[in-house]
Please model this.
Amino acid sequence: MTVEAPVARPDKPEKPAKEPNPHGMTDVQVLVFIVCAMATMTLALLDGSIVSSAVLPIVRDLDPAHGIDRFPWLITSYLLAATAAQPLYGRLSDSYGPRRIYLTALATFLAGSALCASAQSLTQLIFFRAVQGLGGGGLMSMTLIVIATLYPPKSRAGRSNTGGALIAAGIVAGPAIGGPLSQELSWRWIFLLNVPLAGLALAGITWALRLNVRGTRQPVDFFGSVLVASATCALLLGVKTYGEQHSFSGSVVPYFYGGLMMFVFFAVRQLKAADPLMPLTLFRDRVFRPAAILQFVGGFALLSLPVFLINYLNIVRGVDLDAVGLHLIPLAVGVVLVFVVWGRVIARTGRCRPVLIGTTATAVAATAGLALTVADAPLWQLDVLLVLLGAGLGGVTQIALFMTQSAADPEQLGVVTTTSRFATMLGTTIGGSVLGAVLSARFASSAKASGITDPDAAAARLAGLPPAVRHLVRGAFAHATGTVLLTAAGLLLLALITALLMGEVHVDELNEAAEEAREDARTDAEHPLSDPLHPAGPAGLGAEGGGPRGDGGRPA
Model:
């Protein structure tokens, strides 16, 4: 019997190997963590702005006599707490591991939201908003730290489109949700909705998140954290008071000088402390130093602009505050588009600097274009410029942060991330007050003939003004907004120069190093006896648990 030779079959193309899940997490755990992490980031973003659209119901319910004057403290207390706590979160994350600090921030945000919903007076609500801000400020930073711990740089860049969608949702949804929710149900639902969502996220992340990362167990400089928190609060209160008074006098002076003095004491403390909260050596780094400037200027000149655009659309274009979020959709589209583009470009080329320069230049052009045409631009032109502005808003600070995280030592990832976020939040808060003072000064000089020199009063009285006066007020507000945008464009030129001088971060090389580190961590987790510093390992025999290490838990 003849045996036929087997027929040769063409080789099937091999499927690319699936990227292993980080730290031994299952597919389900990765999915649950990503969904929960994105939900918590969305909540933190929304709660920074959603309260501003529920002014009247909150004031009417809790303090009808003096509530309007005290209402800004609901936003200020949240921002103060969120900003001042940033440096402490970074050091705690590096010392005790990001997972437990992340869960602590989420639990604090959950408790703060429940307390806000149950507040019986405006004073209580202001205090509880500070508690919520402590958690909310940590949520943003700790989510970024955890994701940077889980994924190497190239993989993070490829997943960046999700972050863009969340920022875009925060821009549009905050003003759009707060007003209708407080009017149809109750202002308490602004906070009550956080409770089940944050509770589910806390349970999901507790179950799903696995990190084979050991903290350095270094002591935390709590005295330094008190100094920097006090300095931050004093400085921001000074900026807020300056924005209200438009004069560097009165209570502004002690706030500013007190804040600056405490920052000096904090800097001296960081130079002498064995465990500095914010090591000043970071500013010698060729990536971190220019990136910190970009973070601050980007926050000052870009992230504070949506508030001014909302007021412009309301006063000049006549858009109702409940519907103003819909008119910010072009801005949100720009944010999403730039996240998709910069993530893919960096993932393919391994280079960050060209993308950073491109987005910063786009921000300069868009801001200057809006400044020169805001008085009489047709709506289609305004929409195009808002898309470009969104590209800058989603690119400058985010790419600078990505570069900083990618180049950071694993042992300093928490400090580097939160210091960068601290610079951004400080810039955004200061920028909002300073640019607000610019707006008020320009409006007062342009609207003299109307007899109204305060833009807030103009917004409140606009509907009842005679047509000629209303036209004059709208024109003055448009010109004042143009001055604000032109000021922001000038500052963004500084950011563009900084981006041009910044060194490149080669993601491919950093990605290989991160993959090796992940493999080492996985090996240590699976075979603890191979770790010479493990209590049961060679160096740990007879020792009480080894000692703290500055190398992230890997043998030297």
